[in-house]
Amino acid sequence: MAQILKGRMKLLTKESWEYNPNTKANIDLKKEAQLRKESIKFMMSLGVESLHLPLSTVQKAIVIFQRFCQNVSFKNFDRFLYGTVSILLMAKDDYHQRRLEDTIKSFLIVAQKMRLQQFNKYVDPNRLETKEQQEAYLQKLGPKAITMHHENFQTAEIEILQMSGYDLVVEVTSKYLDIFKKKYNGITDKIVFQDLIQLAEENTNTIYMSNLCLYFHPMILTIVAIQAAAEKLNCNLPNIQIESNEQKQEDDDFGDIDIPAQQVEWWQMFSKRIQKEDINDCMQYYQDFIKLLN
């Protein structure tokens, strides 16, 4: 990995990739990929649908969660609980704080819905869809369940913060996908562009199910999501005109560079410091992860 993009967010090195607590706990790569997928689906459902948080906040929480998973085997913690606490931490950091008790209730409901879906051959997975069903379920659990989880959440928060070194600086792909939408809109057919964006967003969600967000800058992740979408749609992304002041503004995070107005490959709209090697590496790991999910 070239890793020329440094930015503000701390990324892990290729060498650290070799340490995998799940392998040591006899969890194979396919099983690990499924556990990550289920965990992130839970976090997206809880954060975006139940707590109504911005996607960018939930993506940041996913990165914090993935950092924790990089050091602790899935066998040794409740991934739904720690995923919820990661969301709470980033919601607070992004000034979207949610009441703890409301979050615990949402956590209990969404976690149970995920469990029901796993056993949908035996029970109705839609039994917690209505507000009345959810209230009945919480009433059945009783107030002690809420009280107990107050302490569990506090313990998990301390462990996550300690494991991350109290570093909550995270950048995510949503910012860069918005840049692509703004600069590329109108260059390709409108219908094709809409399909491209929708598929790129789906690819981004899949990328966050893996631990790629710990090793590659979100610019690279965004490029891979878009490129994979373009390849699936058999869509050619033409070069784009970048003005010098426009390119410099996008490169402010990585140091001053002077670039004349020019035609560049589409992915260079984000930064001239991006290396094709990083894109290829990330794409290969992404494709490997997709195979593990199938």
From TrEMBL:
Any Gene Ontology biological process: regulation of transcription by RNA polymerase II
Membrane-crossing segments per the record: none
Matching InterPro entries: Cyclin-like_sf, Cyclin/Ssn8
One of the record's GO molecular function terms: cyclin-dependent protein serine/threonine kinase regulator activity
Domain of life: Eukaryota
Protein name, as recorded: Amine-terminal domain cyclin
Organism: Tetrahymena thermophila (strain SB210)
Taxonomic lineage: Eukaryota, Sar, Alveolata, Ciliophora, Intramacronucleata
